[in-house]
Amino acid sequence: MVNYYIQPNDNPELTEERKKCLFDTQKLAALYYGGFDKLKKKREFEEFIKNLPEFQNEKNLIFMNRLERFDVNSRKSVAFLEHFFNKVDTSNPDEAAMFYEKFFSYDGSPLSLHFFVFLPNILNSMSQEQQEYWLNLVMEKKIIGTYAQTEMGHGTNLRKLETTAIYDKESDSFIINSPTITSTKWWPGNLGKTCNVTILVAQLYIEGKCYGPHSFMVQIRDFNNHMPLPGIIVGDIGPKFAFSSIDNGYIRFNNVKIPREFMFMKYAKVEKGGKYCKPIHEKAAYGSMVFVRSVMILQQAQYLAMACTIAIRYSCIRRQGELDDKSKEVKVLDYQTQQYRLFPQLARCWAFVSAGKYIMELYNKVNQDMTLGNADLLPQLHCLTSGLKAVISYQAGLGIEQCRMSCGGHGYSHASGLPNIYATQIGGCTYEGENMVMLQQCARYIMKIIDNVKNNKNTLKNDKLFGYYFENINNKRCNNIQEIFETISYKTAVEVYNRLNNLKESGMVHELAWNNCAVDLCHVAKAHIRVFLCFVYNEFINKIDDHQIKSVLSLLKELWEKYELIKISTSVLKYNLISNVRLDEIKNEMYDTLKKVRPQAVSIVDSFDFSDRDMISVLGRRDGNVYENLLKWAQESELNQFEVLPSHKKYFLPLTNTTKKSKL
Amino acid sequence: MVNYYIQPNDNPELTEERKKCLFDTQKLAALYYGGFDKLKKKREFEEFIKNLPEFQNEKNLIFMNRLERFDVNSRKSVAFLEHFFNKVDTSNPDEAAMFYEKFFSYDGSPLSLHFFVFLPNILNSMSQEQQEYWLNLVMEKKIIGTYAQTEMGHGTNLRKLETTAIYDKESDSFIINSPTITSTKWWPGNLGKTCNVTILVAQLYIEGKCYGPHSFMVQIRDFNNHMPLPGIIVGDIGPKFAFSSIDNGYIRFNNVKIPREFMFMKYAKVEKGGKYCKPIHEKAAYGSMVFVRSVMILQQAQYLAMACTIAIRYSCIRRQGELDDKSKEVKVLDYQTQQYRLFPQLARCWAFVSAGKYIMELYNKVNQDMTLGNADLLPQLHCLTSGLKAVISYQAGLGIEQCRMSCGGHGYSHASGLPNIYATQIGGCTYEGENMVMLQQCARYIMKIIDNVKNNKNTLKNDKLFGYYFENINNKRCNNIQEIFETISYKTAVEVYNRLNNLKESGMVHELAWNNCAVDLCHVAKAHIRVFLCFVYNEFINKIDDHQIKSVLSLLKELWEKYELIKISTSVLKYNLISNVRLDEIKNEMYDTLKKVRPQAVSIVDSFDFSDRDMISVLGRRDGNVYENLLKWAQESELNQFEVLPSHKKYFLPLTNTTKKSKL
């Protein structure tokens, strides 16, 4: 068994770790990327891009201001568009995304929204005829688009968006307006400076009647000189926690007229003269939200995987303090506290990967069903993606910060890459649905299930994800951790369900009763997501053939189960599921598992196969030559371009200009 | 009772909140700042500084690159030095710090280390004669100094620092060297570009013998032209998560010679000829570490207080979704989930404030004792500051992120100020002692106490902070939450103590046994800190005379106690301290407390009396006029200086230059 990441001139601390490898890193990498062919393709892309002229002498983005970043990324965008169609099988969205990813850092690019939101929306929500028209413009590179929904004063509650699209019978067109400050569209990526068209979500009005939010295509800038069109004020919303390379924008409309045909008409339609046709399926619009949340799971896992890679490698390079041998400082990864900070994150990583892969498959199935007119699984998928998105984005954030802090001072420097990974990833708690709202959407579906349970409507009895709610939990034995999680989830849900009903029976309206139970409803959602993660983690590992790979991932899964169990031991004790004494044993077993993971840790993170270009981290370098490169990296600092800062000459030196001696 | 922050033209949403105030905000503000006189002084400084020419038309730092920030802050530094001695009672360190704080944002300045570390070190660790010499140079503004201890490869473990100061008998001087890459001094604030002298911690060698780390004063740049002196390489370490306005630096020495008298000689001494005199008191060097950690408590509380102010005000401006009244969206602060995110943070804030004030008093007492040669309380203070620093910095970080996320998308924008408050504050988990190390230092003292308990050495039996360890806990009734916390702390400590001893009795060396229990030892420390916080919170409130102020803070304390109790309910159940049923009741009481805090929330945060200048936040503005100012703020964005970005013209427009039509 072998770690393929050993190379000459590496830091011997890492080579020593890699020699302990008990599995084939190539096989684990293939598992992460979804097959050897995909791993190969990824490396092919990396090799190809590395040699492009646009990628020579790359400067670290962190040293650039935003204008410089836009210059670099715009140049790369042109190269991207040039090579995309020859190098990529465009019918394969994974491959397309991979190609994009290798061009741009996780900080984003001028094409981010165009590729990942604008195009999918055209494909999912336009009629066939419309698609042809707009995709043609995309292929001719005439348009770069984005998606403008969120307004300055309105996020989650779409029904309250204020932007209006009023049908004008006379001209057979829509007139777009931003009637208030709070109606200003705010946040859409690439809207500020890059895009010349946008999908716009606005309240549709026909003859004074509001039909609710609908999507429209609107040109916002001139195709020749890129100036904003008349009636449009558009700009960048300013710097954010991360995503400096994206021009999140604002836009205001003053009587902007678009042809009727620019409304998205796959589902709802407006005919000439103003006749409104309702969509066949109310929930069809759900689709794109659910899609983005599905994709987010693997993305979030990847941020955490990067942070783990950086922190675990560095923890084998950094030595500090002594244990039994007083003659030599130990690697900090030998401390139990360090292992406890890092390995559960790595274990969660693979739980999230299992979940992400499962959800993508489920999404594809649901999507296929829906084209056949069957939306039965959509509510389940919606429940799962809402809950997962919330749980995973939050846990990934906590995990990345643990990784960062475990690197001590160096973790706080941008040289580690970790501050930016955190700042980027943590956006996931907010975008695509604020987490508290997401958890409650997940809980809403679970409450419906409990309602069915209580009323003996056993609709989902044999469902592998939700069926456990219908089992006779009170007689269930907690033989394994999966069953303990299920029992806790069930009991928590029933408790809240009962409280909710009591409040309503006492005369409270549903919304108020719900609000009174809202925090506990979030717990209900989290409890189910825990069951789901445990289930998919198990299923994922059971499918693995290779003995060694199975063994190393099983170790992580064991750690994950015990770690999560200890985290919720209040419920374990409350429902008397296992004894105090046994719980203490499990805790000690968990500490023992940390020791078992220890020798494999570097090889596990190596197998994520992140290139140094991907990670943008001095601490996380594959070769482990950290310290000399920290010094080298620092030379690029803006301040180091002057031996004496101009501001120092200007302000401080005159303070002491009476000094004659230059030295004490 | 009255909220003094109401003004005409405010956002009526905030005025409505402020009218609900049940206490005198002036009195609560005075309590926060430590008296009416201090509050008055603070406002006086604010008024004075606001009118200085250097502060007119202030641009938001977030839109500046580092060179621009240095220009602005250097200009302000000159003004600061000009006015400091007339405006400030320099014998009052609080007042001096306050004056500094009003000049510079929490992002730091060229004078940060000079004032808060360099000067105190001279005062604490130099002989009287040395002090006179160096303070004179400070007064003449000839020197700006910092403190260089941490090396690239060495942080916490001072004994392993590699920089050497070798005594040269011939010239009666020390020769300073950086023998390896990892010995490069790395991180000291203001070292990179600003300072011309530094306190340097290096291994002292005399005639081949190493005497361990000692402090030396070293000139590093020429007083006339500010160029690095021969043998010195110095520069900025590059960008970090925050603190862009500070030039954290690196420095390398090649045979740099300093006079023998430049060694810090209050404690240890080297005489002419090389005779080494040991310090009278081994622990004297402790002092400055303990001081910085003591100061940090209130600082950390302040970051959290700012975040609470921003989030709570904004949550009364933002409306989203409906509850019982379908005609109007509700303020998001009316959601239980929002209250649960925010109010416990506010409650923790005041717990931290209580702790910070208590610790500063204790520090002053210990310091006084020590000048009289009595260091008895130092180990206690060291234990408390280590543990508190770790617990508070971590909890403040979690809290600030909850505040940020509770603002939805706008919280992610730098317009909220929250990303930078978080990135700044969270450094506190790492600097001045990495938190995991700090918790274990705290636990080390507690293990000694348990050892005394077991051996019936009741040294601290009547101590108000540690005495509970000596009570007969098994017979103790848990009549209130304080007693529950004490019982848990005691039992947790004894459990770990026993496991530690069992491991050692089974033949394990102490360090390995300790490492095997390290995670649980951290829990021991946290459990004691919880007891301490509960104690000081109570004591703080008990001292308040004003009935209304006492009442509103008692509400927060009640929330704090219940929130913390629920967080550790595993231990409550494990030790069978209260029943399941009672625990559920307490949880529901906690939710009820949230509702009681709700109408006072804005007035409580108003009373922190932060000015808009302090907070640098559009969302947190006192006047609540958020939305129009978001739009205004965005105009300053670097990207908005061009209607069409130069990079767009260069790269994207040529892609479509065959287009004739400029509009669809």
Automatic annotation (TrEMBL), chains A, B:
Residues 479-656 form the Acyl-CoA oxidase C-terminal domain. Its cofactor is FAD. The active site is at E432 (proton acceptor). Pathway: Lipid metabolism; peroxisomal fatty acid beta-oxidation. Its main location: other. One of its GO terms (molecular function) is acyl-CoA oxidase activity. FAD binds at T150, G189. Residues 24-144 form the Acyl-coenzyme A oxidase N-terminal domain. It comes from the Eukaryota. GO terms for biological process: fatty acid beta-oxidation using acyl-CoA oxidase; lipid homeostasis. Residues 286-447 form the Acyl-CoA oxidase C-alpha1 domain. Keywords: ATP-binding, FAD, Fatty acid metabolism, Flavoprotein, Lipid metabolism, Nucleotide-binding, Oxidoreductase, Peroxisome. It is found in: Peroxisome. The keyword Cell wall biogenesis/degradation does not apply. GO terms for cellular component: peroxisome. Belongs to the acyl-CoA oxidase family. PANTHER family: ELECTRON TRANSPORT OXIDOREDUCTASE, PEROXISOMAL ACYL-COENZYME A OXIDASE 1. This is Acyl-coenzyme A oxidase.
